[in-house]
Amino acid sequence: MSFDNEITLDSKDRDIVKILQNKPKISHQGIVDELAKREVKLSRQSVQKRIKRLEDVGVIKYSVLVNDKKLGKEITTFILIELQTFGSLSQSHQSLDVHTQLLSRMKELELVEIHYVAGREDILVKMRTRTIDTLRVNLVKITQLGGVARTRTLISLAFFEHNFPETKKEFLNALKVVVSESQET
Predict the structure, then answer these.
(1) Structural domain contains residue 77
(2) 80-102 residue pLDDT tens
(3) What is the pTM of this model?
């Protein structure tokens, strides 16, 4: 199945994107060298043209990722928010107004992401905080926004983005769990 705005990437484009995901500040020549290790031959000019095309069609976008840990925000939390619902269809406009106002007021909180989701809960937010006390204060603020029926909070113990652990040892290292040699088997 193909959609009108769907972009098709060939294997060379996918390789370039993967390299950029792992090394976003790599030079065009660096990409050529990385591709050569994978037995893919492209000139620096070809890499440059491909990256420009991928940027132009919106496949590659740039942003700055802040290292929250360096700012002392060690706790990553996901908060599922169930909003109050209104019984009849005639009240659906009122419900939509409440949801819109709530999302607008949530901008005042220090949230990393806000997702409007399907399922039992209506909103998923990602928050980074310094302490459990800061998290507790933010949870109280969320429940006081109005229109919130209940929240459910999940605290992240480890984060994997592109380098998923492949062994038990790598997984435990990511969790910063110290295991003696005899416990590894």
Answers:
(1) yes
(2) 999 887 554 445 566 667 777 77
(3) 0.65
The domain tally of the chain equals: 2
15 and 35 in contact (C-beta within 8 Å)?
A: yes
- List the chain residues with pLDDT less than 50: 1, 88-90, 182, 185
Domain that holds residue 127: 68-155
Segment 1-12, tens digit of pLDDT = 455 577 889 999
Nearest to 145 by CA among 116, 107, 115, 179: 107
Distance separating alpha carbons of residues 122 and 34, to the nearest angstrom = 43
Two structure tokens written together for 72: 């002392």
Give the count of beta carbons closer than 10 Å to the beta carbon of residue 12: 16
Q: Could you tell me which residues come within 8 angstroms of residue 42 by beta carbon, excluding any fewer than 6 positions away?
A: 12, 32, 35, 50
Average pLDDT of the chain?
Answer: 83
Write b or e for each residue in 169-180: b if 16 or more Cβ atoms lie within 10 A of its Cβ, otherwise e: eeebeeeeeeee
Q: Look-up: residue for tokens 């037995």? A: 39
Same domain (yes/no): 138, 83 = yes
